[in-house]
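User: I'll paste a sequence; please echo it back and then give the predicted structure.

Assistant: Echoing your sequence first, then the prediction.
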Amino acid sequence: MKFINDVNFKHSFFKDIIRIDYVADMPLQCINDYGYSYIMFRFGDLEAYDYQNNSIEIPKVFVKGIGDFFNVKAYKNCTWISVELPNHSFHNITNLVAKKYRNKLIDLYDYVDATILDQLYYEIYESQTIETITQTLDKHLNKFYSTRNLNLDSTMIVNYIYSQKGLLPVSTLSEKFPFGERSIDRMFNIEVGSSPHNFICLIRFNFIIRELEKQNYNSMEELIKKYNYYDHSHFEKDFKKFLGQSINSYKNDFNPLLSQALQREYSKL
């Protein structure tokens, strides 16, 4: 598996871009959700299964919002190109109620003219570096950036949760921002795709699992305490919720796709 990214990547709209070329067949690999939105390009044979192990149809170009973990099986000579976007982009692109479309891969051809996407799809596959992929995206999609990256009411709250690494109670949100608890719940349902509580838990998990991956801690007890988990069983519960496996299974699992993803910078405010 050839994993191509740029650690110094900067863009006015995209948070990150990754290209994955498979040089051999790969078994099922679990991927957790990061709380972002994505435009993704599929080239070749790939299989995807949701958190309930249901097969997911994969359009050749799709947009995805927040969801649960899923599993991907890839075959030799296939390619993923993943364009990471701000969380609010899914709702901006589709105008769908985000929570109703959790775990759905929405065909981008329903929202962008086919002649544009056909040319983009062909050219982006020929782009072998993050720089040329970015240039290709800009060439074909630049006119959409201003509307697709429009901040929503949820944007500043989502960014605040990232900045706090998910280490805050839900009640803090209505105290800090000019919205009541019910308004925030409704806002997250429509724009984010998750309840505020679950989103906070997801962000916290994504920060702690990166420290676990990098072995950036002296003891598991210290790490659990740092991220405000009650105890080991509380942390184990989040593992099963966000990765579908136990901590020990994760440590013993061969999953280079997840390991590569966890090595990248997470919060890009």
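The domain at 153-263 is CATH 1.10.10 (Arc Repressor Mutant, subunit A). The first strand starts at residue 2 and ends at 4.
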